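We emphasize that the prediction below concerns an isolated chain of 733 residues; any contacts that depend on oligomerization or on bound cofactors are therefore not represented. The input was used exactly as deposited, without trimming of termini.
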Amino acid sequence: KDSGVAVVTLIHPPVNALHPKLLAMLFRKIEQLHANEKVRAIVLRGKGSTFSAGFDVSNFQQDQKKGNGRKNGPTVDAGNVQKEIEDTLENGKAPVVALVEGTALGGGLELAMACAARVAVKGAKLGLPELQLGILPGFGGTQRMPRLAGLDTAIEAMLTSKPLTCQESHGVGLVDKVCKDEQEALQMAEELAIQIANGKAARCSALYRNDRLPPIQEALRILDAARKMPVARMPHAQLCLDAIETGLLHGAREGLKKESLVFSQARSLPIHHALVHFFFAQRGTKKLTLMANKETPTLQQYHPKNIQVVGVIGGGLMGAGIATSLVVTGIKVLLKEVNDQALQAGMKRVHANIESMKRKVSNQEHARASLEAAKQNLVGVQDFKMFKDCDMVIEAVIENLELKQAIFADFEKACRQDCILATNTSTIDLQLIGKKCSTSTRKRILGAHFFSPAQIMKLLEIVKTQETDGQYVQDTIALSAKIKKVPIVVGNCTGFAVNRVFFPYTMAGCLLVDMGLDPYMVDKAIAGFGMPMGPFRLADLVGIDIGLHVGKNFVDSFPERVYVSTLLQRMHESGRLGEKSGKGFYKYDLKLSSRKALPDVAGLTETLQRSRKDSGIPEQKMKTLKLSPEVIVEMIFFPIVNEACRVISEGIVDKPGDIDAASVLAMGFPPYRGGLIWWADHEKGSKYIHKRLEELASEFPVQSGFFKPCEYLRTCAERGRDIGTGLHVGPKL
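Result of the prediction step, given as a token string:
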């Protein structure tokens, strides 16, 4: 420009991810500009509505494919990139100012922090989320962020992977100027760049700043406290803190060397491969590989319609949660209940959910205002008159087949012929629900299974019957993106994919207890594995009565491979219904909102004794049974893996990776293990799992059906193949 400012734009749609080739082009272009006498200053920006979302993660995935997911070298030399950033962005002849719009995450923020200043557009988010992928900032972030934003802020941002808002970034000094829009920001960035070039504004290199760092002894105390935080227990988090500590003790230059070294070390850790796999697994759920009916077009050929009005039947906890997820994303919801009292209670639940969301963004005025306005999207009704306007309806009442059939009969009369008819059932066969509807209506019936609490849990299980038209499946996939859910399309069977795969979870726990183990020992072992709670704490949370009801569906559907314990029945008979009654496997103080779970050994003794007697397991075996936490984990999860193999072989899921995404997002399986199937393949192996299940089936002959390996697992073991690649049977969706 005439002013002497050159504007450089990063272009790699949709989020300007930093592919190694893009980085190389950027550094060469900046070098050329430094050599141009007409260029006095440079503004660096991203094309579109984002600066850069960070390093191109697809390079990590490509390396895993080359190395079979077990060994791989770095896609890019972090040390070389650090030097290029320093030479071109930080220390070049012309000062560089970063214009941040949208997001500057990971490597994107690291580029911006190396610039002489940062100008942000209101609403921008800045962060270093690399730990979510099992690595750490590798382009200087561990050194520059503490020096720009302060040590406390930098450590929290890195360990939690939570981005800072524009206002927060400005408050801590990460951003120098905030502008209302892109046009004003560009003008400000150009003016600031020229001021720096003319010496009217300071040109400060983040690497040489120490004014925001605390005294060394205080800094070391902060680091020591950070190392003890739960989020820092992973090895790559400790490596990140090692790099920060080196920079504090020996200066930023030594810190950069350490960062480069530990970045490479983190890249070789199994946790990195697992987290990269999970990253792509949850993004791949929308990409369906096949449809069973070869005459039907694949889902990608459908053009999804924009769903704007949704009717929700039932204002209980689940219905209110579903309604909340919809209204906060701008969708109008007709919430129907049977009477005014139930309707008002449902409306209050939705409003309470929104108020809870507002508290989480208490320092973001725009977000709070948007959530408050979302309440206007909720309309309460007690009949079906307005349902003619609905693009979709979702039934979320109790698990009662006759009631659901009656509701779908009402849907058929009240809704348009292009309206999607969905049920939130977690167990009932969809073909039974739609049995009394016409053939044309059954084409519009599908499952929209949310997980509780629906406004928080990210997974949406979309259940397709053999009759469901693909257009309505695609419409629901599009809706999931709009309401910020991860969709998994599954076939119709008892429990569908998620609940079916995990039905052995509580059954295996009951079997271990009937064998003589302490339920608290089982829960401790499973929590130590990384699950949010063990089977007995989970049973208390869900409700013992609900657990009995859901479990019966699987006992009826799969009688040859279930373990039927009387433990839950005995709990129910003694009034121990779980958290809601103040006592279950644990005891709770109902006066406290936190409801901390406390062991109740004395209260459980008689119930456990009666269940063990009912089981018929020899008392001598109970007395001699001693299991390590690792063996407990195997006895809980190997039957789950076995059921997952059946789900894969039957084509209930589109691909094994969908089970990985679902196991993490719906059941709390630890993401750093990659998901259920990835863990089974990469930490255990199909041969070992098959062998152990055979041994357990032999050791416990009465319960052998619960452990007997399925044909798919046996074949994978014999052929030495991973469960995740296994046999290409093709989905039966």
